[in-house]
Amino acid sequence: MGNRGMEDLIPLVNKLQDAFSSIGHSCNLDLPQIAVVGGQSAGKSSVLENFVGRDFLPRGSGIVTRRPLVLQLISATAEWGEFLHCKGKKFTDFDEIRQEIEAETDRVTGANKGISPVPINLRVYSPHVLNLTLIDLPGITKVPVGDQPVDIEQQIREMIMQFITRESCLILAVTPANTDLANSDALKLAKDVDPQGLRTIGVITKLDLMDEGTDARDVLENKLLPLRRGYIGVVNRSQKDIDGKKDIKAALEAERKFFLSHPSYRHMAEKMGTPRLQRVLNEQLTNHIRDTLPGFRSKLQSQLLALDKEAEEYRGYRPDDPSRKTKQLLQMVQQFSVDFEKRIEGSGDQVDTVELSGGAKINRIFHERFPFELVKMECDEKEMRREISYAIKNIHGIRTGLFTPDMAFEAIVKKQVIKLKEPCVKCVDMVIQELINTLDCYPMLREETERIVTSHIRDRESRAKDQVLLLIDIQLSYINTNHEDFIGFANYSDVIPLPRPQVIRKGWLTINNISIMKGGAKEYWFVLTAESLSWFKDDEEKEKKYMLPLDNLKVRDVEKSFMSSKHIFSIFNTESRNVYKDNRTLELACDSQEDVDSWKSSLLRAGVYPEKTVESESTTTADNFSMDPQLERKVETIRNLVDSYMAIVNKCIRDLMPKTIMHLMINNVKDFINAELLAQLYSAGDQNALMDESQEQAQRRDEVLRTHQALKESLAIIGDISTSTITVPMPPPVDTSWVGGTTGGRRSPPPSPTAPRRMSSGQRPGPRGAPPPPNRPGPLGPFNNSADSPQAPSRPNRAPPSIPK
Predict the structure, then answer these.
(1) Residues 358, 436: contact at Cβ < 8 Å?
(2) 231-233 and 609-610 as β-strands: parallel, antiparallel, unpaired?
(3) pLDDT in tens, 569-591
(4) How far apart are CA 664 and CA 686, in angstroms?
(5) What residues pair up with 174 in beta bridges, in sequence order?
(6) Do the Cβ atoms of 431 and 666 come closer than 8 Å?
(7) pTM of the model
(8) For a tag site, which of 347, 354, 363, 534 has the least CB within 10 Å?
(9) Where can this protein be found (predicted)?
(10) Which helix (H) or strand (E) holds 330?
(11) Which residues, at least 6 apart from 619, have a Cβ–Cβ distance to it below 8 Å?
């Protein structure tokens, strides 16, 4: 093999496999191994039994292997087996090993053909084996039997993928010779995860069962359906041989005679058979471990460093020590106080880059959600004018008024101010919910701690709502028409809307309703102002594509398409005019619903309101409402005055609401956690019982300590291994497109340089025995199963190149 260190590599990985299996999958380490993949009855189990030289695997019809079997073969002077779940018990009778596999499988999966991804670990010591680690996976099936679910095929494929997608896993793709190799499920799965063929080794079984006059020579020579690592052929025992208890040693001798005597295979007999396959897998797994060892060591070191601090805290830990409990209680409260404040106020360490959280979400409530709720309170224009006219008429009573009455203005303003109570209370509710969600982010909190903090938050909620409603009542108590921003009753003809900020929002949006003929949906840089919505080619704003005035526009929700991941809203004209070119609506798409809500809020600030679905009313005199010119002027005056005053009120409320909530709720909760929570915990009851270690914490502590120790031992073992050795270079790439191609619903191989020979049918034209021409393709390296050496094609009797030892 090269040196003693390299020979110890596979036993080393076996030790690591056992160590990490015993502590669970917390390390997520991809140990180098070989996964055996194939369809039902492909001969996988027979190949493994031939390696061991014993009958020890369950047999039967349908799915027999229903849990992954991690089989560790270890060269030893005696012969026995051990299971990881039966540590210390040696099985010298291999029939008992089969019975234990069946019993352990049924224990997890049930006795009626269920499957499970939980592996069974079996270690076999024998003088007849080479060091090797293989995983026998369930055979790919198409039809469920027994109580198997209807998606059994998908479940098995997903289980197989869990193993073969790892870069550290070699794939042994087993295919019977009496089927169409181009339709091999094993090779198709291997091609999906290993398209370059760096990890795939082909095994052809049942060569003795092919139709008379057919053979698999071109396949085994890697010419007809090439794989980068080539193929190795084996002959297993038939079902009759198994039923007759034919000795495996005799079967291996019969296999050797088959290859030596068969006219199509005798020239490559030394490269065929189970012993050859076992040697090749041993060499390849050893070299694969050597190649992956540096990365494997780095992963071990990084995980050890990640656990160092936690393991140090747990070392010497005494769960029943009263001083430990007091100290832990103090530390928990102090740490919670610091973390809670960081989460609310913001911090540079441990920044969440996936979603908004804590203070960022509350800020969004204050400055996007709450203003959005305020603007949504805008009433219908016609309804507003009707109410103003009724107020004017009712104030004048039987007389016809000459002047616009102040009382009508106050009545309408107060009605609008009262409507602000609902969005203000809703704002408090949203902040409360966010504070409670923030508590859920701290798994270290005990139930009693969370209860006390939540109770305090609920207490502050009622006070905050009372104060918020008081703010509205204060606004109702006095209508200040002398406010400097109020336009007043003077000079009605000059009443104009308040100036708005020039640029309200900028950002990327996708125009969703551009026809495919015109290029389909496209993304543009949008700029929203108080007067228009413009979009540009990019965010440099040099090339303007279009400018849309905001007059008579409204926003409408659009149901999310089944085929689209985008969230959509649309803009339309209330006068049924085209909004953009020939389109009646402009559909705009965002990546998330939060972005949609944010844009709708910005559009509301610009005066583009959401569409209101109003139930149709029966025809009344109100539908035909009309006013005389004098009354209409009075209504217009009060309408503009109401807009002016409500803008002042909204501005005031938008400013005071965040301040009120911050003072009465958020800052108060922070002060409570920092100054009073510990006292509340001490007064709540038994502090020792409060800090008792839970079952989950004890399990976590034990798992961390065992994992930390296993990682340290693994690094120590790996540090003693010498990885210097002579290795065989990877064979050059071959064309494996035949695995993925289809022709007329059937996969078919590319044309061979010689007359094609099907594995399952068809006569072989031309005489056998002549060596192939010099220009016939074939991969280099130890898996080149051609009788010819690639370096000297004109010398057919030259011995094949040997693998360096």
Answers:
(1) no
(2) unpaired
(3) 999 988 888 888 888 888 998 88
(4) 31
(5) 38, 203
(6) yes
(7) 0.48
(8) 354
(9) Cytoplasm
(10) helix 322-345
(11) none
Contacts of residue 358, Cβ cutoff 8 Å, sequence gap at least 6 = 343, 344, 346, 434, 438, 441
For 99, 207, 380, 606, 680, the CA distances from 138, given in Å and listed in that order, are 18, 22, 67, 63, 57
| Contact criterion met (CB below 8 Å) for 26 and 708 | no
**Rounded to whole angstroms, how far apart are CA atoms 302 and 388?**
73
Neighbour count for residue 261 (Cβ, 10 Å)? 10
Rounded CA separation 204/47 (Å): 10
Rounded CA separation 212/660 (Å): 91
> What are the residues whose beta carbons fall under 8 Å from the beta carbon of 578, sequence distance 6 or more?
584
Q: Which pair of structure tokens corresponds to residue 147?
A: 């109580």
241 and 43 Cβ atoms separated by less than 8 Å: no
Six-digit token string for 131 = 């060091």
Backbone φ, ψ for residue 749 (5° rounding): -75, 165
Q: Which two tokens stand for residue 777?
A: 């393709």
Question: Which of 583, 599, 601 shows the shortest CA–CA distance to 591?
Answer: 599
Spatial contact of 472 and 423, defined as CB atoms under 8 Å apart = no
Farthest-apart Cα atoms in the chain, separation: 126
SS (HEC) of 252-269: HHHHHHHHHHCCCCHHHH
Cα separation, 309 vs 307, in Å, equals: 6
Q: Where are the beta strands (DSSP E) in 127-168?
A: 132-136
- pLDDT tens digits, 425-438: 999 999 999 888 88
Contacts of 787-790 with C-beta under 8 Å, sequence gap 24+, read 787/221, 787/267, 787/268
Are residues 163 and 35 in contact, defined by beta-carbon separation less than 8 angstroms? yes
Taking only the tens place, the pLDDT of each residue in 172-231 is 999 998 888 778 888 888 888 888 888 889 999 988 888 888 888 888 988 877 888 889
CB-count exposure of residue 204 (10 Å: 0-12, 13-18, 19+)? buried
Residue 641 burial (CB count, 10 A): 24
Task: Output the DSSP codes for 587-626.
Answer: EEEESSHHHHHHHHHHHHHTT-EEP---------TTTT--
Alpha-carbon separation of residue 80 from 15, 18, 246 (angstroms): 17, 17, 21
